[in-house]
Amino acid sequence: MNTSDVVAMLAENWNMTQAEARKFLDVITQTFNENIASGNSFSIPELGTFGAATRKERTSYNPHYEQYMKLPPKRVVDFTPSKGLKEDLKQVDIDDE
Q1: What is the CATH number of the domain that holds 18?
Q2: How far is the C-alpha of 59 from the C-alpha of 72, rounded, in Å?
Q3: pTM
Q4: pLDDT for 39
């Protein structure tokens, strides 16, 4: 599913134009990005919790140069799925995908 599909689905489900749905999606995405960038976490019921985490410095192997290199710490997006989402995924039959 891509952005156009999401916009079309929002427009159809909420009886709005695709332009309005696109603007709504842009505002929501911008709000999420600003919250995560500022270090805040937020929850969406039945989906999960989004936040930012710091990945520790680590050593990685580069096969092209055949040597180890240190990767510095960095900030990453962290997602913890809700219990409801985990249960829903358990119900999905693998053959249905």
Answers
A1: 4.10.520.10
A2: 9
A3: 0.70
A4: 86
How far is CA 95 from each of CA 1, 57, 89, 91, rounded to the nearest angstrom?
A: 19, 39, 13, 12
Evaluate whether residue 96 is within a structural domain: no
Residue 94 pLDDT level (bands cut at 50, 70, 90): confident
Which residues, including other chains, have CB under 8 Å from residue 35's CB and lie 6 or more apart?
A: 41, 42, 50
Mapping DSSP to helix (H, G, I), strand (E, B) and coil, where does residue 77 land? strand
Comparing C-alpha atoms, which of 50, 43, 47 is closest to residue 89? 47
- Domain carrying residue 8: 3-90
Residue 97 has pLDDT above 70, yes or no: no
pLDDT at position 85 is 92
